[in-house]
């Protein structure tokens, strides 16, 4: 699903996200891997994990690994997000019927399972569970839990001062003997879905010993909003799950897990998991064909080659929850910016605020041949996204389809008519060898040249080492980019918040803001799921009017692995919808 050029804007946790640029700074060059042997499962992944800290903003690789190390309080009971929940580290799922969810829907009580140990032998307690959730709120400024638990978008106000005290956090999340008690600021319908999507319970003493928050009031402000790449747990792990972290090779990015022999539940069948990052997709494909790995992360462009490999199994998955989009940065950093040419509207570059002009954004959206992108890039195993909030009630047709006349019309209106006469030139970087990014940018360049030969977009390959060294600066300089976002948990509010809300991750990155959108998002949070359609429909109208980004497609997932391997498809929505494997269930000959 991911390719070598990863745009990491930290869209919440993503979860996994699938995203493309700041995480490229976490990419590490990989060495060779041992031949795959019985009991050892080897995966060729696109990148090294950005972080293993379960409270951090994880990319796909980090999530794949962490889900086998850490466990949630409750888990999804089936492949559908509506299938209910089953207890994991809590012995019961809170409901109003069993009294563990208060009648007003604000207080959740979780009886914490006894007899469970962390991988370092420390016993799990309600206090450890409370600490873990408090830490998630404190250390990550974009924490998913701040809004439902504290009613805020951040624990820091716009003036930079803290908007809450430590006692506010400690009262909202606390241990009561052997129970974890969480009190929300306001009813939050998807709260159990959120908890089921974020396995993150860790040992307080272990975290503190590795430089993280010690759980006290005296030190909490010091640890607020620490960047994921500065976490003391970035390359360390200590969960309660069926596998434990064995080694992290900082040079190659290879991560090795081994079976947890003291696991409280059913023991895994595999003895060892090896995650090895390989930059080139052709290398990952070749390793899979030769039997050097059991599974490889591959794009749909490999399907024809896979069909000819008799020793492999290709299993199609569900339609992806992820949406792939082109994103504009409304104002880029102009100083020493290699992507905006002259920095002027003179045909040799673009101004720093090029995409703040709505007509430019609309013209770009009408210029693209979406059918060609679906056919040649996504191989038609994808669906065009018609709304920033994908759902059954979404519009049947996107407000933006290829329309040469409308593209020309908006280009002629942009910048008071100057753009059409002057033309423009901009560059878009991608990692050398990232075939998918190169294909996409070539299609875009072709589309603009077709509208006006003075419109020039230059795909600019750069070395992986360059992205590693300069990834953060590049993200501030790139006027146009592409990314994919998968919801952190299964609720349409999460799409609305991330894609459109002014305090959400995408708008914070791009600079887009709409007061009406913000009001609608806040209203959505308090509206029952079956009453939200009118709100979402209005958000669709504003998206069509403002064109803050270009919706592309949602690709179908698939897995390619060696024949004879079983247990690859999980019944848990979190694994199933994201194309992850629950390795505690996987076996191989």
Helix content: 25-40%
User: In which order are the strands of the major sheet placed?
Assistant: 7-8-9-1-10
Structural shape: globular
Unreliable stretches: 1-35
CATH homologous superfamily label of the domain at 323-554: Dipeptide-binding Protein, Domain 3
Q: What is the C-level CATH assignment of the domain at 323-554?
A: Alpha Beta
Count of helical segments? 19
Shape-level CATH architecture of the domain at 323-554:
Roll
Determine the mean pLDDT. Answer: 88
Give an overview of the whole structure.
Among the domains are: 75-201, Dipeptide-binding Protein, domain 1; 323-554, Dipeptide-binding Protein, domain 3 (Roll), CATH 3.10.105.10. The chain has 19 helices and 17 strands. The chain has helices spanning 60-66, 126-139, 146-150, 166-172, 191-197, 204-209, 281-290, 303-307, 358-367, 370-376, 404-413, 418-422, 435-451, 464-477, 492-499, 505-510, 515-525, 533-546, 573-578; strands at 40-45, 74-76, 85-87, 107-111, 173-176, 179-183, 243-248, 255-259, 272-277, 295-296, 312-319, 323-328, 382-384, 424-431, 455-462, 480-485, 549-562. The protein has a five-stranded mixed beta sheet, with helices on one face. Strand 2 (74-76) and strand 3 (85-87) form a beta hairpin. The longest helix is centred in the C-terminal third of the chain and has 17 residues, at 435-451. It starts with 39 loop residues before the first strand and ends in an 11-residue tail after the last helix.
């Amino acid at each position: 699903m991911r390719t070598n050029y990863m745009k990491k804007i930290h869209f919440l946790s993503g979860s996994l996200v699938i995203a493309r640029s700041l995480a490229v700074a976490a990419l590490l060059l990989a060495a060779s891997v041992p031949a795959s042997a019985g009991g050892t499962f080897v995966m060729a992944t696109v990148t090294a994990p950005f972080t293993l800290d379960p409270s951090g903003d994880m990319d796909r690789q980090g999530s794949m690994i962490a889900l086998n190390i850490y466990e949630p309080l409750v888990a999804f009971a089936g492949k559908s997000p509506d299938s209910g929940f089953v207890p994991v580290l809590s012995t019961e799922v809170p409901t109003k019927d069993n009294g563990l969810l208060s009648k007003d829907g604000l207080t959740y009580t979780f009886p914490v399972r006894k007899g469970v140990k962390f991988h370092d032998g420390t016993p799990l307690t309600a206090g450890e569970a409370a600490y873990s959730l408090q830490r998630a709120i404190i250390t990550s400024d974009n924490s998913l839990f701040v809004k439902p638990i504290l009613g805020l978008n951040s624990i820091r106000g716009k003036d930079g001062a803290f908007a809450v005290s430590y006692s506010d956090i400690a009262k909202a999340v606390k241990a009561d003997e052997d129970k974890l008690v969480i009190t929300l600021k306001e009813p939050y319908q998807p709260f159990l879905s959120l908890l089921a999507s974020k396995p993150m319970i860790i040992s307080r003493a272990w975290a503190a010993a590795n430089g993280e928050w010690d759980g006290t009031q005296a030190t909490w402000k010091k640890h607020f909003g620490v960047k994921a790449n500065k976490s003391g747990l970035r390359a360390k792990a200590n969960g309660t799950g069926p596998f434990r972290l064995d080694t992290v090779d900082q040079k190659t990015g290879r991560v090795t897990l081994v079976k947890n022999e003291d696991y409280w539940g059913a023991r895994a069948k595999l003895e060892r998991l090896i995650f090895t990052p390989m930059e080139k997709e052709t290398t990952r494909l070749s390793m899979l064909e030769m039997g050097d790995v059991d599974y490889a992360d591959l794009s749909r462009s490999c399907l024809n080659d896979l069909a000819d490999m008799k020793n492999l199994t290709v299993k199609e998955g569900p339609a992806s929850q992820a949406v792939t989009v082109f994103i504009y940065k409304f104002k880029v950093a102009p100083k020493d910016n290699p992507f905006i040419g002259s920095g002027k509207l003179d045909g040799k570059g673009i101004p720093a605020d090029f995409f703040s002009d709505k007509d430019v954004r609309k013209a770009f959206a009408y210029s693209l041949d979406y059918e060609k992108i679906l056919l040649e890039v996504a191989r038609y195993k994808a669906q065009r996204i018609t709304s920033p909030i994908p759902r059954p009630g979404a519009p049947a047709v996107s407000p933006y389809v290829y329309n040469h006349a409308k593209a020309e019309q908006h280009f002629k209106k942009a910048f008071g008519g100057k753009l059409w006469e002057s033309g423009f030139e901009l560059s878009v970087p991608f990692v050398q060898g990232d075939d998918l990014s190169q294909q996409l940018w070539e299609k875009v360049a072709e589309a603009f040249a077709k509208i006006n030969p003075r419109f020039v977009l230059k795909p600019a390959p750069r070395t992986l080492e360059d992205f590693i060294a300069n990834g953060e600066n590049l993200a501030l300089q790139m006027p146009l980019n592409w990314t994919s976002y998968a919801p952190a948990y299964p609720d349409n509010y999460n799409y609305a918040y991330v894609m459109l809300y002014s305090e959400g991750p995408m708008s914070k990155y791009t600079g887009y803001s709409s007061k009406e959108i913000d009001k609608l998002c806040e209203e959505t949070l308090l509206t029952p799921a079956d009453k939200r359609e009118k709100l979402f429909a209005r958000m669709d109208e504003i998206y069509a009017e403002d064109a803050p980004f270009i919706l592309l497609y949602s690709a179908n997932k698939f897995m390619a692995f060696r024949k004879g391997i079983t247990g690859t498809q999980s019944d848990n929505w979190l694994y199933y919808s994201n194309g992850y494997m629950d390795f505690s269930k996987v076996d191989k000959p």
